[in-house]
UniProtKB/TrEMBL annotation:
<dbReference type="GO" id="GO:0031514">
    <property type="term" value="C:motile cilium"/>
</dbReference>
<dbReference type="GO" id="GO:0051321">
    <property type="term" value="P:meiotic cell cycle"/>
</dbReference>
<keyword id="KW-0966">Cell projection</keyword>
<keyword id="KW-0963">Cytoplasm</keyword>
<keyword id="KW-0469">Meiosis</keyword>
<comment type="function">
    <text>Functions as part of axonemal radial spoke complexes that play an important part in the motility of sperm and cilia.</text>
</comment>
<dbReference type="Pfam" id="PF02493">
    <property type="entry name" value="MORN"/>
</dbReference>
<protein>
    <recommendedName>
        <fullName>Radial spoke head 1 homolog</fullName>
    </recommendedName>
</protein>
<keyword id="KW-0677">Repeat</keyword>
<keyword id="KW-0206">Cytoskeleton</keyword>
<dbReference type="GO" id="GO:0035082">
    <property type="term" value="P:axoneme assembly"/>
</dbReference>
<dbReference type="InterPro" id="IPR003409">
    <property type="entry name" value="MORN"/>
</dbReference>
<keyword id="KW-0969">Cilium</keyword>
<dbReference type="GO" id="GO:0007286">
    <property type="term" value="P:spermatid development"/>
</dbReference>
<keyword id="KW-0282">Flagellum</keyword>
<dbReference type="GO" id="GO:0005634">
    <property type="term" value="C:nucleus"/>
</dbReference>
Length: 231
């Protein structure tokens, strides 16, 4: 293992970077091929390099206990890879320029799981979230990490089909019960009741938004549900 101090092009005006590196190099002396490196902060990398940068398949171990194994492109996680986080959670799937993006599965520290589409590190697009404690699962659309759009919320013996907005059901939908009936209705957003203004105005925190309330319209026999029938 040899010590290495060099100024990289993107660190032209920064102090020299000192690292330990053992591995292949090209004719220009750049890391190229397979190698092992220990960074100044205690992190380590073992894998492929291309013209001085992590490119190809490799394993990066963080000093805090996190670990990434997968593909790199120009020092960034890019392609397929698995990231093990210090809290015990794990993501396995697609990466684009260090971001969870594409399709992937995330196992959360509390046992919940999400499998579906990602954009910029957030759940975005179509995906399924399973709650470990209850076994319930949300199957539908996500926008910037929040349940938003057409979806089903499936429980042990019944399910709800409708639309979500900012994480809550809103608008028309129906509950489908395994006993053989459906309850149609609508989730309505309650209005905030404004208190009578006092003579001396006092600064108060804005009220928290009220959760939508379910209003039943009818109960019918169980009908065959085809996804294309409703938006």
């Amino acid at each position: 293992v040899a010590g290495l101090c060099q100024a990289r092009s993107w660190e032209r005006f920064a102090p020299l970077v000192c690292q330990e590196y053992e591995g292949d190099r090209n004719s220009e002396g750049q890391r190229h091929g397979f190698g092992k490196a220990r960074l100044p902060n205690g992190d380590t990398y073992e894998g492929e390099y291309e013209r001085g940068m992590r490119s190809g398949h490799g394993t990066y171990r963080f000093k805090n206990g996190a670990l990434y194994t997968g593909n790199y492109l120009e020092n960034k996680k890019h392609g397929k890879g698995v990231f093990f986080y210090p809290d015990g959670s794990k993501y396995a799937g697609d990466w684009v320029h260090d971001q969870r993006q594409g399709h992937g599965e995330y196992l959360y520290a509390n046992g919940d799981t999400y499998t579906g589409e990602w954009v910029n590190n957030k759940r975005h697009g179509q995906g399924t979230y399973v709650y470990k404690d209850t076994g319930s699962k949300y199957v539908g659309c996500w926008v910037n990490g929040i349940q938003d759009g057409p979806a089903e919320l499936i429980h042990l013996n019944h399910r709800f089909k409708g639309r979500f907005l900012n994480g809550n059901p809103l608008g028309r939908g129906k509950f489908i019960f395994d006993i053989g009936c459906e309850q149609h209705g609508e989730y309505i957003q309650p209005m905030q009741v404004k208190e009578i203004e006092k003579e001396e105005e006092e600064e108060e925190e804005p009220p928290l938004p009220l959760e939508p309330v379910w209003k039943v319209s009818e109960i019918t026999k169980l009908t065959t549900w085809v996804p294309q029938e409703e938006e």
